[in-house]
Amino acid sequence: MMPRTQPLAAYPGDPAPHGGMRERRYYRAYGLTIASDVALPELESAEPAAADILIAIGMIDMPKPSPETATIFRFEPDRQYLAWHAVGAFLISDFSRIDIEPAPGVNDALLAFPLLGPVMALLLHRRGLLVLHASAIAVAGRGAIFMGDKGAGKSTTASALIRAGHDLLTDDVVALDLAKPDAPMIVAGFPQIKLAADAAAAISLGQAEVRPQVHPQIEKMQHRLHGAFSGDTVPATRIYVLERGQRAGITALPGIAALPAIIKFSYVTRFGRAALSGDFAALHFRQCSAIANHVGVFRLEVPTGLDRIGEAVDLIDADLAAGDLAGKKLAANRRPR
């Protein structure tokens, strides 16, 4: 389901706050052309064209959070409003436009942090994609998704797989296209992964540019990849739910546990029931069920200690290879004789 499929017309630059003009830049991410008044070097540049999404700077006639309330989230059928006192206000409308009113003194780098995280996740959700709070890697044409609680090691495990020669699909926001529910596809995001300092030191990503720290309270550093990124849509083959353990291990989750795990780590559930208004609640449940029924969901135990991350990488490689072999045998057995 895609509520809006037609791209927007090309827009001229809008006036920037305090006079002057902002340069409108064009990018590609999640299979979409994005026209943006906010500089987003995290994304891949694109030539000016009719845009699927417009990101515009301007005034938003909505209540702003106070220092005490810190945030305001409002969800309506035709628009969604997210505001952080320390960053700014974001209004999503028509499945295709994000208006931004920055807080005083906030630069584009800090605006991009929620814009490319929860704001983009909510817009993709409203466009009919299933969005997981996870990381995803392409391994020989197969997509592996890593979900888990904060600190479980999603980005760390993904980075170790990149170092092992595989390609990033997306970090933090994993969008799945279920146009064919029995064949879910991971839509490539953009070539950046966020890592804590200790993980970055232990897992050196050679073709990566470490961008300046966005804010003193945001510990993870942004690593902009130059290479090791797959811009292709890839079949979702495995979902791994990460847990810390004494040794590396992979265990299949039964269906009764797989569906709750997918619902738990879907991005929209972070906003509570209010974000699943109207038909979107039923659609979201059907999408989560389709993933649970058609993608293998496994518990992945990752050994404590960054020096042992290679054990998990070896196990993931072996599991994906075994799954690919089993899939080929099943397809061969189904062919008419």
Topology of this protein?
Blueprint: E1 25-29, E2 32-36, E3 44-45, E4 53-57, E5 71-75, E6 79-84, E7 88-93, E8 97-102, H1 108-126, E9 130-139, E10 142-147, H2 154-163, E11 167-177, E12 185-187, E13 192-195, H3 197-202, E14 208-210, E15 221-225, E16 234-245, E17 249-252, H4 255-264, H5 279-294, E18 296-303, H6 309-334
Parallel strand pairs: 2-4, 4-8, 10-16, 16-18
Antiparallel strand pairs: 1-2, 1-3, 5-6, 6-7, 7-8, 9-10, 9-11, 11-12, 12-16, 13-15, 14-15, 17-18
Helix pairs in contact: 2-6, 4-5
Please tell me about this protein's structure.
The chain is of the alpha+beta class and 337 residues long. The chain folds into two domains: 102 residues, no CATH class; 205 residues, P-loop containing nucleotide triphosphate hydrolases (Rossmann fold, 3-Layer(aba) Sandwich). It is built from six helices and 18 strands. The strands form three sheets. It has an eight-stranded mixed β-sheet, covered by helices on one side. A five-stranded mixed barrel has the order 9-10-16-12-11, surrounded by four helices. It has a three-stranded antiparallel β-sheet with strand order 13-15-14. β6 and β7 form a beta hairpin. The longest helix has 26 residues. The chain is globular. The N terminus and C terminus are likely disordered.
